[in-house]
């Protein structure tokens, strides 16, 4: 059963998510000496990343022990405005003392997206602790029900033998590279961040136990703890129907 919390504004949500990150990082570092986290891309998490780079959060985290991965990436150069890595770098990674070799971005320099995905699958296998388990994966939710780049009606949804894969998203006319269901499902903790009125319909669908299981996020068989942090706008229809 997921833990679902609704916050009045994105700003309040970001503070709670920053506290969640700090708690989870401290616990992982106490337990294993390292914190392995996969970041979400898109717009929603930017405010969280910016907050983590400031006080009172930044000094509570031992950044030297943080290992950063990405849940998905657009197949664009790393300094492209659409790059998830660029967003995270500008909002957080440039401002904190994570050793560069512990920032494991999805390398989009490969001539084919499949090669970039194969490379990232190897990176995950060789860098994640035994069992390929993330301590925390941050995820978003698209209005069409995608999470990471697990888009509806795409072949990546059936991939279970690799930790990362490439996917062509017809409606975007673009390639993405994403971690796959098995990589997500093994995580110790998953935190979804969803804000904005444009997500209200999909939030209601995804969080209603009786809704048709048509969206990728509904097929996630998470083994660890799952939390949903919603702002009031995103939760508005769900709160009415629950
Ligand atoms: O394209 C993407 O979309 C989702 C949701 O993004 P948001 O801006 O609507 O929050 C995101 O989680 C994913 O990482 C990203 O590549």
From TrEMBL:
Keywords: Hydrolase. Pathway: Carbohydrate degradation; pentose phosphate pathway; D-ribulose 5-phosphate from D-glucose 6-phosphate (oxidative stage): step 2/3. It is an enzyme of class 3 (hydrolase). It catalyses: 6-phospho-D-glucono-1,5-lactone + H2O = 6-phospho-D-gluconate + H(+). Residues 9-228 form the Glucosamine/galactosamine-6-phosphate isomerase domain. InterPro entries: 6-phosphogluconolactonase_DevB, 6PGL, Glc/Gal-6P_isomerase, NagB/RpiA_transferase-like. CDD domains: 6PGL. GO terms for biological process: carbohydrate metabolic process; pentose-phosphate shunt. Hydrolysis of 6-phosphogluconolactone to 6-phosphogluconate. NCBIfam families: pgl. This is 6-phosphogluconolactonase. The lineage of its organism: Bacteria, Pseudomonadati, Pseudomonadota, Gammaproteobacteria, Chromatiales.
């Amino acid at each position: 059963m997921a833990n679902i919390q609704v916050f009045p504004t994105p700003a309040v949500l970001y503070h709670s998510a920053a506290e969640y990150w700090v708690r989870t990082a401290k616990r992982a570092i106490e337990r294993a000496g390292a914190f392995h986290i996969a970041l979400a891309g898109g717009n929603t998490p930017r405010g969280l990343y910016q907050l983590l780079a400031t006080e009172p959060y930044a000094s509570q985290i031992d950044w030297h022990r943080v290992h950063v991965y990405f849940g998905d990436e657009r197949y664009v150069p790393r300094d492209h405005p659409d790059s998830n890595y660029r967003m995270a770098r500008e909002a957080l990674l440039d401002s904190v003392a994570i050793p560069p070799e512990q920032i494991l971005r999805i390398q989009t320099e490969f001539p084919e997206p499949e090669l970039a995905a194969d490379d990232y699958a190897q990176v995950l296998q060789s860098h994640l602790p035994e069992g390929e388990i993330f301590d925390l994966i941050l995820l978003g939710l698209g209005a069409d029900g995608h999470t990471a780049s697990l888009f509806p009606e795409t072949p990546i949804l059936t991939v279970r033998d690799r930790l990362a894969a490439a996917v062509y998203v017809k409606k975007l006319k673009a390639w993405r590279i994403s971690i796959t269901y098995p990589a997500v499902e093994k995580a110790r903790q998953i935190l979804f961040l969803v804000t904005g009125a444009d997500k209200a319909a999909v939030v209601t669908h995804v969080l209603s136990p009786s809704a048709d299981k048509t969206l990728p996020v509904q097929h996630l068989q998470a083994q660890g703890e799952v939390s949903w942090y919603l702002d009031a706008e995103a939760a508005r229809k769900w709160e009415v129907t629950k």
